[in-house]
Design a protein that fits this description.
The protein is α/β, with parallel strands linked by helices. Helices cover 36% and strands 17% of the residues. The two termini are 16 Å apart.
């Protein structure tokens, strides 16, 4: 990115609390297809909104398990990009830094970010469908998927938030706290359309934060962001780091 507003670097240099919300855009730069773009090949005939529900899993657990196994392979092949890595470095610069993500691919943690709130869960983890008890480690071998939780005996499912399910309360409450206390709030690679996550930048703005949008295209939030930076996270975030280092 060729130019950053000088006012932005000044604000960041004086900030103590910084919070971030990331969406599918930052993962797309690592080759992770968006939720709907992933419907290719054998899965093209399925509507993802009809597979990502508790009802779909109860009706055909093998189908849903195999769809998520395929999606997990796509995520496992992806590596953190320059945007993920820049956020790791940004975290080191502030006393209070909270990263909330709508993504389930686990790339922020893989990159090395420490304080990550996964609002929609993680495709890299599993839990019991009946009890919600998490699984430690990988699922046991199974000839007839889905495998069973070794302690509860219930079917295992991905530890992601499905349509019709509530977001994890602790992560949501901590994300709201971070938004309300932030001096600077970044919204990165998200359309700002999916609630309640889309309300977080608004919470930050109402509390007086400087809100910075990073997105290649305009979103509904662009008009009310303090700074709306057009570009990819992998380009804009390293540029911000470089500016702060000068």
């Amino acid at each position: 990115m060729s130019h950053l507003p000088a006012d932005l670097t000044d604000v960041l240099r004086s900030a103590r609390c910084v919070a971030v919300l990331t969406g599918a855009g930052i993962s797309a730069e690592s080759g992770v297809p968006t939720f709907r773009d992933a419907q290719t090949g054998l899965w093209a005939k399925y509507d993802p909104t009809e597979l990502a529900t508790p009802e779909a899993f109860a009706r055909d657990p093998r189908l849903v398990w195999e769809w998520y196994a395929w999606r997990r392979e796509l995520c496992a092949a992806a590596k953190p990009n320059a945007g993920h890595l820049a956020l790791v470095e940004l975290e080191k610069l502030f006393d209070d830094f909270t990263l909330t993500t709508q993504n389930v691919d686990g790339l922020h943690l893989l990159a090395g970010s420490r304080r990550v709130l996964e609002l929609h869960g993680s495709i890299r983890r599993y839990k019991c469908f009946d009890t919600g008890r998490p699984l430690e480690g990988e699922p046991p071998p199974c000839d007839d998927p889905p495998p069973r939780h070794p302690d509860t005996g219930g079917m295992l499912r991905p530890d992601v938030v499905w349509f019709g399910e509530a977001l994890p309360e602790a992560a949501l409450m901590e994300s709201i706290r971070a938004a309300r206390e932030a001096d600077v709030y970044f919204t990165i690679g998200t359309s700002a359309l999916v609630y309640p996550a889309a309300s977080l930048p608004i919470e930050a703005q109402r509390a007086g934060a400087t809100v910075v949008e990073i997105n290649p295209t305009e979103t509904p939030f662009s008009k009310i962001a303090t700074f709306s930076l057009r570009g990819k996270a992998g380009e804009v975030l390293p540029a911000i780091l470089q500016a702060l280092d000068q």
